[in-house]
Amino acid sequence: MVSEVFETLIKFHMIFNIIMRIKKMNPALQTLILVFSLFAVDSAQTYYPSYYEQNKFNIASPGALKSGLYGYDNPALLSLQPSPDIYFTWNNETGSFSDFQNWGLYTALPYFGFSMVNNKTDAGSFLDYKLSAGVGNSVAGFGAGIGWASEETYNVDRATYYTTGLYYRPASYFSIGVIGNLPTKGYGEGILDLAVRPLTNEVLTLFGDYLLRKNLTAGENTWSAGVIVEPVDGLRISGRYFETEIFNVGVHLSLGGIGITAQTHFPNEGSGSYQTYGIRAGAYDRTFFSDIGSGNDYVELNMNGTVKYQRFRFFDDSKTLIEILEQIDAAKNDKSISGIAINTSGMNINREMLWEIREKLKEFKSTGKKVVIYIDGAGMNEIHLASVADKIILDPVGSVQLPGVVWGRQYYKGTLEKLGIGFNELRYFKYKSAVETFANDKMSEADKEQLQKLVDDYYEFVRKDICDGRNISLNDFDDLVDNKYFILPNEAVELGLVDTLARWDSIKDIVKDFEGEKKSLVSPNSLIQFKLPEDDYWGKKPQIAVIYAVGVCAMDEGIKARTLVNYVEDAVEDDNVKAIILRVDSPGGEALPSDYIAEALRKGKGKKPIIVSQGFVAGSGGYWLSMYGDKIVSSPITITGSIGVIGSFFYNKSFKEEIGVSTDFVKRGKHAELGYGMRFPFFGLTLPDRNFTDEEMLKVESVIKTFYNDFVNRVAEGRGLSTEEIEKIARGRVWSGKDALNNGLVDILGGLSTAIELAVTESGLKNCKYDLVQFPPPGWFNFESILPGFLGVNKFMIEEDPIVTDLKFRLGNNGTPMPIMPMSDMELLISE
Asked: Alpha-carbon distance 764 to 63, whole Å?
């Protein structure tokens, strides 16, 4: 045994040296030939099921069709297996159709497979087993397996053997695979598997394979070639020719979760043909029946919980906006679906996201499908969403509250005075109200003007949608708001705000009464779009990158610009990323983080389409993030603009002395002590001992105004407008998305779906398959949701009050000019 291993190693070494001496050979090709050559060793007998013994069970070479024989041939392909599957096949080579003398059972999970094959010989029957595993992605994968035979092999000499395999798909039209079988007894074999798709899709596949083993016995096959045609989804017709002049013709019919296979084997002498049959069940496959569609199902969409942009991979049951939009889209295109039933109980979502979902439901309804929405209590935002429905269900003990729209702020001038903390508002632009909550005890006239406009716009926007959806006059709606506002269930039905009273557990009966026939409720995950295999596209699909800039503009918190800029730059340089969408939801903050991201986008302009999608808040530094987009997409109710700069300065008046703290210092430099003072324990923040001097105030004013002019010039450059045009709509003024469209700050009204559609069109992917990739990648664990479960920790002990967050951010940037909006706008983004 030792001598055999030693001899094999010497052969391997000789082959390796020969290959490495080949000049100017591609390194990847060198590696491929080396792996292949390891199995090109001397053998006149095999002690395991050789590759071509399975031609009776497989329609094509492994890499040409789905996952091959689930790891029995090439274990690497198991990494492409989407979900559990089982395939039973048999032939009548040694008997009749029902004899089941030669059969194979192939089972698979994602990444794992187990197979068993019953062999009929003159000496009797025995079983070959195979356990395999594979890892990889759509471009490349590696796998390994171990095979053995049952003990009752009679006169058949079988040995345990090992299989290694790999595949590589560098393009949508080409696939290459290498398989090696290494037995513990005797010598092995290597197989090269090639497939080509001239049309870059599953409609036409050409394939061939080649077996390498020296001293093959007479009549053994060394190669085959063939073709697979899929003229309609799920119907595959194959032909395969072998060197030994055997020819196979096969048909595979997919019915979704099950499939039927039949092929005929024609021997080289033209007589004695036999058939192989197969039945598959489990993983969903393409089927032309999906185009027929029964329309007997409703998608059940449960909105309970928080809706945000990204969730953690573990311990996070929240939902994401893009996930909900994709589910509604998938239901729209699924012919088995006739409607959506939405449960809004426990929903936590801001009004802009609600609008995006409402717009997507309008698209869904445009196909003739129905929307049913259940509410157990609704305010203005919730009834706005529900008004898109064909039928609204209100809980019998719920209510509809229509108080109107309000927008207010808290003011801390009196609090700071009582604490002995001085505050200096460094404000030089009329509408830039970001720090007046600390400087004033009430709303300034300029802030009241701009916020009143936003409130009026939103009220009129919601009123029109609700009135259109529920067939209510505008005057009647105003009467509901001003004179009724708290509406009990029966009254809500009488007034036409809802259609019926019931609880969610009656939804099936309500849908049956509404549709006139029984409908099944199915989960979004059961929709065809989310079940289809991805073997219709080889290699890495072109990508559209969705990059989230959410939160305060800061280097290491909020948008985390220090790391976010890397994702932007990588997306710009990645040739496979065909377009970039920057989703902005930010009230601004520090200038440097905003400019980090904006500058990276500016450098990427012209290389690929760059689309900005504005969420609920995208003003000040949030608009700085947006200004270099090729197109800016905003919802009608987005808060944007606020092109301006402001500063603030907290300082000690008597607070330090009241709590018994004193400070002293030595200095060199006229202004050295500016900013010096007591440090707050735990926070690491400083309260300066003094205010600015008159000289320092003049300098600060000059800096802020220079900063502002630079901001205006940058926006003018990004938007292709003059500085005079931008100046008219700047000065810190906030705008609704609707008004921003009119004044040139945004290009299109729409949501994230609109931005994606625009990116697809602009990048030339309109009729192509592509992947959406999201950055930053989601975190692994949501520790804030885990900790309350341990040691009785209350979650409110973990969460920081927004006021404290705001104060810490201001003190951390004390005296720094910033393109920022009131932090309470960020609180609205999070809490609505």
From this structure: 29
112-140 pLDDT, tens digit per residue, is 999 999 887 766 778 899 999 999 999 99
Write out the two tokens for 446.
Answer: 């300029």
Q: Tell me how far CA of residue 340 lies from CA of 297, 362, 512, 692, 791, in angstroms.
A: 9, 12, 13, 61, 42
Q: Is residue 30 within a helix (H) or strand (E), and if so which, with residue range?
A: helix 27-37
CA 562/CA 566 separation, integer angstroms: 8
Structure tokens at 559: 């948008």
Q: Please tell me what DSSP assigns to residue 186.
A: S
Q: Are 269 and 82 in contact (CB under 8 A)?
A: no
Is there a contact between 377 and 395 (Cβ–Cβ < 8 Å)?
yes
pLDDT score recorded for residue 630: 96
CA–CA gap between residue 692 and residue 703 (Å, rounded): 14
CA distance readout (Å), 607 to 196, 478, 560: 31, 51, 25
DSSP 8-state class, residue 650: E
Percent of the chain surpassing pLDDT 70: 87
Is the Cβ–Cβ distance between 236 and 230 less than 8 Å? Answer: yes
Structure tokens at 222: 């060394």
User: How far is it, in rounded angstroms, from Cα 704 to Cα 645?
Assistant: 6
Work out the pLDDT band at 45, boundaries 50, 70, 90. Answer: low
Structure tokens at 598: 């904006």
Distance from C-alpha of 239 to C-alpha of 265, rounded to nearest angstrom? 10
DSSP 734-757: EEEHHHHHHHTS-SEE--HHHHHH
Asked, as a colleague might, if the bond just before 776 is cis with ω within 30 of 0, I would say yes
d(CA 386, CA 156): 71
The DSSP-derived string for 518-586 is --EEE-GGGSGGGT--STTS-SPPPEEEEEEEESSB-SSSBT-HHHHHHHHHHHHH-TTEEEEEEEEEE
Instruction: State the DSSP code for 813.
Output: T
Give backbone dihedrals phi and psi of 371, rounded to 5 degrees, phi first: -125, 125
Cβ-contact 252, 236 below 8 angstroms:
yes
Among the listed residues 274, 266, 261, the one whose alpha carbon sits nearest the alpha carbon of residue 69: 261
Check: CB of residue 39 under 8 Å from CB of residue 188.
yes
**DSSP state letter for 681:** T
Among positive and negative, which fits the CA dihedral 749, 755, 757, 760? positive
Give residue-wise pLDDT tens across range 317-357.
Answer: 889 999 999 999 999 999 999 999 999 999 999 999 999 99
The distance of Cα 789 from the centroid of its chain, to the nearest Å, equals 29
Tell me how far apart the alpha carbons of residues 593 and 552 are, in angstroms, rounded to a whole number. 10
- Which H or E run contains 600? helix 591-604
DSSP character at residue 497: S
Instruction: Name 136's bridge partners.
Output: 141
- CA atoms of 735 and 290, how far apart (whole Å): 46
Contacts of 14 (CB under 8 A, 6+ apart): none
**Residue 177, H or E segment:** strand 174-183
Residues in the chain, total: 832
Outline where DSSP puts E strands in 24-77: none
DSSP helix/strand/coil, 253: strand
Structure tokens at 51: 């590759």
With tokens 């701009």, the residue in question is 450
Instruction: Look at residue 216 and tell me whether its pLDDT is greater than 80.
Output: no
Angle between helices 351-365 and 321-333 (to 10 degrees): 10
Q: Do 240 and 224 meet the contact criterion of CB atoms below 8 Å apart?
A: yes
Tokens of 819: 């393109």
pTM, entire model: 0.88
Q: Mind listing the pLDDT tens digit for each residue in 147-204?
A: 998 865 555 678 899 999 999 999 999 999 999 999 988 778 999 999 999 999 999 9
622 token code pair: 């949030």
